[in-house]
Amino acid sequence: MPNLERLEHHACFGGWQDVYRHRSEVLGCEMTVGVYLPPQADPAHPRHAPCPVLYWLSGLTCNEQNFITKAGAQRYAAEHGIILVAPDTSPRGEGVADAEGYDLGQGAGFYLNATREPWARHYRMYDYIVDELPAWVEADPAASDARAISGHSMGGHGALTIALKNPGRYRSVSAFSPIVAPSQVPWGEKAFAAYLGEDCEAWKAHDATELVRSATERLPLLVDQGGGDEFLDVQLRPQLLQAACEAVGHPLRLRMRPGYDHSYYFIASFIGEHIAHHARALKA
Amino acid sequence: MPNLERLEHHACFGGWQDVYRHRSEVLGCEMTVGVYLPPQADPAHPRHAPCPVLYWLSGLTCNEQNFITKAGAQRYAAEHGIILVAPDTSPRGEGVADAEGYDLGQGAGFYLNATREPWARHYRMYDYIVDELPAWVEADPAASDARAISGHSMGGHGALTIALKNPGRYRSVSAFSPIVAPSQVPWGEKAFAAYLGEDCEAWKAHDATELVRSATERLPLLVDQGGGDEFLDVQLRPQLLQAACEAVGHPLRLRMRPGYDHSYYFIASFIGEHIAHHARALKA
């Protein structure tokens, strides 16, 4: 990985929470990534072995810091011996296109490859997450080639769509409060129109509710959704994914959590269950 | 509590993480406070009972957000049925004296009552933590009158000194990376000179290493200290407390944690052990 720089290095639950900055050729800018190495990644650890990797995709406005500082996921990753990789949510910096709103441009990459200007040059988060980032992570002898993916909100959309589009690549997938049908909700309509153009046919390739209809792999989807989420009815609408999964028999476990909102307090409350779910698949 | 306003309300580990703003008469300004109510605080909970309260005092530059968003303490408070109360670290706002540095003025109240100008009017965090805040918290039927106190860095200093100065008031005390001897280190010398004046005799009343020498209650002190803490040798110096405790036979459990730094990644890694320690004392 060219121009790799370690920005942070903190002991945490017996392992290390690091933050790296590196040059992304795919995105044409520098990117920051949080990497948690569990104790088992240390060659001196009595149960040392190459560790499976859980990729975490954050939501709108986030960077690599939100998940690593607020989710409390390191405890569970340490218990299960899983590496956590949490990248920034979009290309950034001078020369990278941006927009006024929080829901388009920097901080809002939507985990796709943009085809329209001014976005097409840098906004290639799909290729970054699927190829460039894991190629770097998995070149480290600490990492095995067993992969899982999860995320929150826009990142839940990213996790679901990327897993559905890449059969065999991820052992498991889960999401918190995902945008399950971006083609049918305001956040997705705005972003997809900008990044992909007005032709809604092109949107289907990045819409989980569309992708399950033709999925060739029956990878179970685990989704947690807060019942008190302020974005539930307009932006998230998990029942659309539920109906699509039922129509084609795609396995979905959708858990509504009464009272929980869209914040990291929700994620923190249930990330342990998600990591246990991924651990079962990653070590099977 | 006059002018009480709830700013935040999040479901979290089966309970509620709230943030309140209220008018403090002692401090002469508005204050923000994080309050975590565990599931057992709900009258509908099968194991409902008035819950003991752990007061958490944060460090330099912090407000009520740092602990509630980064420590991951709610999981353990929910397990043990403990209310967590995390106030801001100083008076704030227009009309409240301040200084250029991060280590004096707003964000740096040092949990004492200032006697010198321009600080004496508002900087009365000792009275706020010992009297005004618990009077409000414990008026709620969700809270029992069993109290514990803990904190980090400047807040570890606050927890140790407040517990030592108030025998019988707290069932247990602990600290992460505390400033154990502020009279002998740069952070403390600067703050105490400003808030209390140049006479070092007045400083002893707010210095844990001095207070243990004359403590009438043998309340055990639990201290965790990261061995990789960037402030260890100049600002924290836990061996000064250790020597003072040994000299008078005051019980101290000082745990050095190799590799850990001064950040919330350290606190998150061991806050579960601290809350278990407090739970044993609070429920004895």
TrEMBL record, chains A, B:
A GO molecular-function annotation = S-formylglutathione hydrolase activity
Does Transferase appear among the keywords? no
**Kind of enzyme, top EC level?**
hydrolase
- This enzyme's EC code(s): 3.1.2.12
**Annotated keywords:** Hydrolase, Serine esterase
The entry's function note states: Serine hydrolase involved in the detoxification of formaldehyde.
Family the entry assigns: Belongs to the esterase D family.
What this protein is called in its record is: S-formylglutathione hydrolase
Organism, per UniProt?
Luteimonas salinilitoris
- Gene name, please? fghA
